[in-house]
Design brief:
Blueprint (H helix, E strand, L loop, with lengths): L7 E2 L15 E7 L3 E7 L7 E7 L6 E5 L3 E5 L6 E8 L2 E2 L3 E4 L8 E5 L13 E9 L5 E8 L8 E6 L7 E6 L3 E8 L2 E7 L6 E6 L10 E4 L10 E3 L6 E3 L2 E10 L4 E10 L10 E3 L7 H7 L6 E7 L5 E8 L2 E6 L10 E7 L8 E5 L2 E7 L3 H4 L9 E7 L6 E8 L9 E10 L2 E9 L11 E8 L1
Antiparallel strand pairs: 1-14, 2-3, 3-6, 4-5, 4-7, 7-8, 7-9, 10-34, 11-12, 12-13, 13-14, 15-16, 16-17, 17-18, 19-21, 20-21, 21-22, 22-23, 24-25, 25-26, 26-27, 28-29, 29-30, 30-31, 32-33, 33-34
C-alpha cells in the first residue's frame, strides 16, 4: 500500500475496515415525520440493488428496488426507530438506523445520524460543527464533523445544494479534519480547521467547488484531545475580510487546563493562503490584570466573532457566560500583538456560541436566548430556542423572531445550536447543529438542519 496525504475520500474507511468498499454505501439519511430520504453509492459493478427497511429489532423488512441514487420512503409510523440497508448480489451494506419524527417548521434536513448508529465510530457518534459557503456558480456547500467522547474526532462530511438549500446531496468526506470553517476567497473554496480536537491547525483549498481538495497544509501545531496541557481550539467561526486582512478567532488551551487563551488568526487578503508563513496568530491573552479584576471569575472565553464595533474599532466578541459576552480589542497595526480587554457586555445569550452579522449600520445576532419557561427548568445552558435579534450598538437588543422555539421541551434533550450563516441581501441562510427526537442530549446532535428566510 502506497503512502498518501490525500484529504478527499468518497467515502473514507479506516484501513481495518477497508473491505466495506466492496458493499453499497448509504451516504446520507434525512428522516421526516412519516418516512425518510436515503442517498447511496453503488458498487463499481451493476445491480440489481434492493433497499430493505423495517422497524428496529423486528427483522420484518420491506424490500423495494433501488433504481436511483436518491430514494424516498413514506407512509411509516412517526416517532419510531427503523433499520435500513441495501442488498446487491448477496452483498449487504452496513445497517443504518433512523428515527422518524416531526422536523421544525421551515427546516430542511441536510443529514442525520442516529445516536446508536456506529457508521462513523472511527471519528464520532454525533453531528457537530456545521459550516457553510456559497461558491462562484451559486452552489451551497455545507459540512459537519463527527464527535464523541474518547473518539478520534477527525472527519468532516460535505454536502451540496444547487437550489438554495431545497435539496441536498452528498459530496465527499474530508479526513483528517475537525472544527472546520468553509469560506470562499477570490473564487476559491477553503476549509480551515484542525486535524482533531486540539490538534494541528490546517487549511486546504478546492478549485472545483468542493468536489476535490488539495492536501492540507499545517499552519500551527497543536496537541490532541487527551492532552492536559492544551492545544489549538476553535469552533467553526467565520472568516471575515476587513481592512485588507482576513480574520478569524482561535484559542489555545483545553478544558483540563480550565482555560482557553484567546487569540486571532489573520492573513493579508492578497497573500497565498496555503503558505503558512503568510498567517499570523496574535500572542495569547492570559486571564490577568484589568480583565481578571473586572470579571472576578473566568468564563468560557471561546468561539469569537470578529466585529467592527460602532466605535469604528475591530473587536473579538467571545462566548463568556449566560447573559453576557466578552469583548477584546484587535490591534490592526500589529497582528502579532495580544488582544486587549475591552469589557464584559450584557446580552441576551445563553452559554453557547452566537453569531454577530454587521450590515446596513446595524447588527443581526443569532443566539440561544434563555426564556422564562426554560429558566424554570433550572438550566442556564439552554439551547432549545434559537433566535434572531437586532441591535445598533451591541448593547441594546430587539427580538426579531425565533428560528426554532421548543421551550416546552426539556432543554436537557433539545438543542438548536452553533448556527453558521450566509447573509445575502435580505436573505439569511443557516445551518444549525440540532439535537432532538431521540438525541442522547441537547449537545449530542443527531441532525444538521438548513433554514433560509428573509431578515
Amino acid at each position: 500500500m502506497k503512502g498518501s496525504n490525500k484529504l478527499t475520500h468518497r467515502p473514507y474507511f479506516p484501513p481495518n475496515v477497508a473491505h466495506r468498499r466492496q458493499a453499497p454505501y448509504i451516504c446520507r439519511l434525512a428522516p421526516g415525520e412519516f418516512g425518510f430520504e436515503l442517498e447511496w453509492l453503488p458498487l463499481e459493478s451493476t445491480g440489481p440493488y434492493n433497499l430493505c427497511y423495517g422497524v428496529r429489532g423486528s427483522e420484518d423488512y420491506q424490500t423495494v428496488p433501488l433504481l436511483d441514487p436518491v430514494m424516498k420512503v413514506w407512509g411509516l409510523e412517526p416517532d419510531t426507530d427503523y433499520e435500513v440497508f441495501i442488498l446487491a448480489k448477496g452483498v449487504k451494506s452496513a445497517t443504518r438506523l433512523l428515527r422518524t419524527g416531526a422536523i421544525p417548521e421551515g427546516a430542511t434536513v441536510i443529514n442525520y445520524l442516529h445516536p446508536e448508529d456506529p457508521q462513523y465510530d472511527f471519528s464520532g457518534r454525533y453531528l457537530c460543527s456545521p459550516c457553510l459557503a456559497r461558491t462562484q456558480s451559486g452552489r451551497l456547500v455545507a459540512g459537519m464533523d463527527l464527535f464523541g467522547g474518547q473518539m478520534a474526532q477527525n472527519l468532516i462530511l460535505l454536502f451540496k445544494s444547487e437550489d438554495d438549500g431545497k435539496t441536498w446531496r452528498y459530496m465527499t468526506d474530508l479526513y483528517p479534519f475537525y472544527w472546520g470553517s468553509l469560506f470562499t476567497h477570490r473564487g476559491v473554496l477553503y476549509m480551515l480547521g484542525l486535524t482533531t480536537e486540539y490538534g494541528n491547525l490546517q487549511i486546504a483549498a478546492s478549485y472545483d467547488e468542493g468536489e476535490s481538495w488539495t492536501a492540507p497544509v499545517t499552519l500551527f501545531y497543536g496537541s490532541n484531545v487527551l492532552c492536559r496541557y492544551g492545544g489549538v481550539h476553535r469552533a467553526p467561526m467565520h472568516v471575515v475580510e476587513d481592512g485588507g486582512r482576513l480574520y478569524t478567532s482561535c484559542e489555545y488551551g483545553c478544558w483540563a487546563m480550565g482555560s482557553h487563551l484567546p487569540a486571532v488568526l489573520s492573513v493579508d487578503r492578497d497573500a497565498d493562503l496555503l503558505d503558512p508563513e503568510n498567517w499570523t496568530r496574535s500572542e495569547l491573552l492570559h486571564f490577568d490584570g484589568e480583565w481578571k479584576e473586572a470579571a472576578g471569575t473566568q468564563g468560557d472565553t471561546m468561539e469569537g466573532n470578529i466585529v467592527r464595533d460602532p466605535d469604528g474599532k475591530l473587536y473579538n466578541y467571545l462566548r463568556w457566560k449566560v447573559g453576557s459576552y466578552l469583548r477584546l480589542k484587535i490591534n490592526e497595526e500589529d497582528p502579532d500583538a495580544p488582544l486587549e480587554f475591552a469589557g464584559i457586555i450584557p446580552a441576551p445569550v445563553s452559554n453557547s456560541m452566537f453569531r454577530v452579522i454587521p450590515h446596513d449600520g446595524k447588527y443581526t445576532w443569532i443566539t440561544n436566548r434563555v426564556t422564562e419557561k426554560v429558566a424554570a427548568f433550572g438550566r442556564g445552558c439552554q439551547r432549545s430556542v434559537l433566535s434572531v435579534l437586532e441591535s445598533r450598538d451591541n448593547r441594546n437588543f430587539t427580538l426579531c423572531y425565533d428560528v426554532v422555539n421548543r421551550e416546552e421541551e426539556d432543554p436537557e434533550y433539545t438543542g438548536f445550536q452553533y448556527p453558521v450563516h450566509l447573509y445575502e441581501g435580505d436573505k439569511l441562510s443557516l445551518v444549525v447543529r440540532s439535537g432532538f427526537n431521540g438525541a442522547h442530549n441537547a449537545h449530542y446532535a443527531n441532525y444538521s438542519l438548513f433554514f433560509r428566510f428573509e431578515l
